[in-house]
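not sure who needs this but someone in the group chat was asking about CBS domain-containing protein from Antrihabitans stalagmiti so here u go. i didnt clean anything up, its just raw.
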Amino acid sequence: MSERQSSMQVRDLMIRSVISVRPETSLREAISILVDNRFAALPVVDGDGLVVGVLSESNALAVGPDQQDASVGSTMSTPAEVISPGSDVSTAAVRMLNGRLRSLPVVEQGLLIGIVARRDLLRVLINDDVTIAAKIRSLLDDYAGSRRQWTIASNEGKIEICGGFSSKDEQRIVAALARTVPGVRHVDVLPTAVAPAVGI
């Protein structure tokens, strides 16, 4: 990977809105989720949000048609292959290649906070807007933590950051941080809800 990608972290690229299933979910329901959303795998979490396994396409294909009423827990791979949000993107790429994995759940203190897929890594190789958005995400995570639900869109250096902000001051701080990233030409901050205050 180039210097640009190797300096990036998993938190910069991960998808934060993750669909997961529970061990007691029926295999039939889980397969429907995989097919309908074109997922390669589903994280399996317990009642506390801790990742306890992964249900992959391979797991599902290994089960016969007469076993689809079985639970996900009886079919999933354990222990789950996971990665932390602070891991380098290059580390994620090596683990995916060596383990022949198409995605990795991202966990913080055992809790599922996102997922990163091979296609997310590939997008960085071809899209400068993705790189800009990822660098902004990294700055915002350093400022407010990786669990804040802000969405960042970049189009030829024009940035939109949407989500919940604790105050007008926080909106100004977020916009100022975004403007420090090379390639950013304009920043719009669009509040969609009120979020609890976050200390700097």
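also The chain is about 35% helix and 25% strand. if thats useful
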